[in-house]
């Protein structure tokens, strides 16, 4: 997921005059992970806090989705390939990520050095508008660690 404003299949959040949402939004202890797999601290939270590293491209994809959801820009930057990492990352905005579906993967395991993950992310803007964004993301290893290279809107 490279940016919040990819082409959406549904209605996009309209340009808003509301103030931007505040920065990092920590989850309560025991809260479910935004990626939907497990408790946040046992799931993507351990990657966000640096206690573990994703072992597969899909784990990295999930953790990056969760980082968008909790607005962890630092994590997104450090899991972005240095060649494609944006100079500035603005996570503020009216929409909220509400769910993730992994649609397909290629490569990306412990035995690969690259992989792709195709996913559908759901958003809402809190004003009754909602939609999805689909992307096929490419991941590679840099010094053994999975990083996000780029993505194409599916
Ligand atoms: Zn997770």
Automatic annotation (TrEMBL):
Limits of the YchJ-like middle NTF2-like domain: 56-151
Q: What's the superkingdom here? A: Bacteria
According to the record, the residues making up region (Disordered) are: 1-28
The record's listing under InterPro entries reads:
NTF2-like_dom_sf (IPR032710), YchJ-like (IPR023006), YchJ-like_M (IPR048469)
Residue ranges under compositional bias (Basic residues)? Answer: 1-12
Q: Which family does it belong to?
A: Belongs to the UPF0225 family.
Q: Which PANTHER family match?
A: ADENYLATE CYCLASE-ASSOCIATED CAP C-TERMINAL DOMAIN-CONTAINING PROTEIN, UPF0225 PROTEIN SCO1677
Name-wise, this protein is: UPF0225 protein DQ392_24450
């Amino acid at each position: 997921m490279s940016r919040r404003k990819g082409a959406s299949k549904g209605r996009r959040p309209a340009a808003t005059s509301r103030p931007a949402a505040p920065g990092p939004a920590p989850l309560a202890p025991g809260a479910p992970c935004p990626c939907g797999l497990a408790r946040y601290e046992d799931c993507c939270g351990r990657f966000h806090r640096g206690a573990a590293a994703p072992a597969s491209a899909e784990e990295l994809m999930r953790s990056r989705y969760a980082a968008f959801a909790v607005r962890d820009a630092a994590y997104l930057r450090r899991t972005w390939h240095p060649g494609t990492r944006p100079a500035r990352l603005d996570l503020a905005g009216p929409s909220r990520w509400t769910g993730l579906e992994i649609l397909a993967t290629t490569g990306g395991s412990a035995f690969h050095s690259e992989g792709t993950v195709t996913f559908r992310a759901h958003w809402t803007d809190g004003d009754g508008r909602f939609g999805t964004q689909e992307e096929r993301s490419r991941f590679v290893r840099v010094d053994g660690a999975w990083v996000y290279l780029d993505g194409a809107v599916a």
